[in-house]
Amino acid sequence: MHLTIPILLSVAMALGYAVPASSLQARDILANELSQFKFWAQYAAAAYCEENYIGQTGSKLTCWAENCPLVESADATIVYDFSNITITDTSGFVALDKTTKAVILSFRGSYSVRNWISDVTFPHIALNLCDGCFAELGFWSSWEVVRNPVSAVINETLSMYPDFELVVVGHSLGAAVATLAATDLRSKGHTSAALYAFAAPRVANPALAQHITMQGNNYRFTHTSDPVPKLPLLSMGYVHVSPEYYITSPNNATVSVEDVEVLKGEVNFEGNTGTGLPSLEDVSDHHWYFERTDGCIAPGLPFRA
Q1: Is the pLDDT higher at 179 or at 298?
Q2: Most CB atoms within 10 A, among 19, 35, 81, 175?
Q3: Cα-trace Rg, the chain
Q4: Which residue intervals define the domain Mono-/di-acylglycerol lipase N-terminal in the entry (predicted)?
């Protein structure tokens, strides 16, 4: 989310904020886990760079903001890119990383007016993924409009590289779409797909959130008082996927293992949710997830990117 944040926060504060009970469990992370988190955050950052989401098949991934050096140094190329082809302006890429032995689906966060419309389309939509499952309409629609071509590319690529893992990543709106995409792809046979969601807003009702949590292999990150993961509101029937990887280090700082707390529960007030109402004063916290994750984004709010 970019210039959309002030509008979203205004809506949130007007509606109020519910406070259910939390589920308090925590664990520490390991140094090798931290390295993986930083690596996948750079794949989320790469989705903001125009040369990647309007790139050519076979092109190397690059970040002009210099915030994805690990991705640039890997043997990684674009297999498929998508942008400006749907009403939601869902953008991103599928990449083949031969160094990591992974196929990566990465979604860009908010940039355009059409993205903003997806951000604030708060009503639920019923899904056939589990009994009683409902998702946020705008986020699900953003995945649904690219679902068929992206799924076909992933299936074809993994058929050629059957020992590669599938990893789905995104930041902000991209993280919301990535969460639902990973859930859907798992239901279609990619049961071990990994999800790395940075600064994701809430996407699901309790039934769907619990279903995604039970699928496993979910890494959902929040940062200090970032307001975006506090939206849509708990009072609107939305909760988070568990666990939460809560980053406590300040903006523009190197993250150590001591700076990441792992918290369980769809609602847990030991993490980001417990830092109070979503506030415009905390918008800067939204940008920093191991890197300046949206560093490649251009200024302004176009109708489409």
Answers
A1: 179
A2: 175
A3: 17
A4: 14-78
**How far separated are the first and last CA of the chain, in Å rounded?**
13
Decide if 218 contacts 195 (C-beta within 8 A).
yes
Let me know: does 68 contact 51? Beta carbons within 8 Å.
Answer: no
Positive or negative, the CA dihedral 161, 162, 165, 167 is positive
Instruction: Scan for tokens 């980053």, then name that residue.
Output: 247
Q: Are 278 and 13 in contact (CB under 8 A)?
A: yes
Assign domain 5-292 to its CATH architecture: 3-Layer(aba) Sandwich (3.40)
- How far, in Å, are 17, 64, 115, 262, 270 from residue 107 at the CA level? 28, 18, 12, 24, 28
pLDDT tens for residues 144-175?
A: 999 999 999 999 999 999 999 999 999 999 99
Q: How many CB atoms lie within 10 A of CB 136?
A: 29
Tokens standing for 133?
């499952």
Tens digit of pLDDT for each residue in 34-69? 999 999 999 999 999 999 998 778 999 999 999 999
> Hey, is 147 helix, strand or coil?
helix
DSSP string covering 288-303: EESEETTTTPPSS--S
Instruction: Judge contact between 48 and 108, C-beta under 8 A.
Output: yes
This prediction's pTM: 0.89
Residue 76's DSSP bridge partners are 97
> What is the amino acid identity at position 127?
L
What would the two tokens of residue 187 be?
A: 């239901």
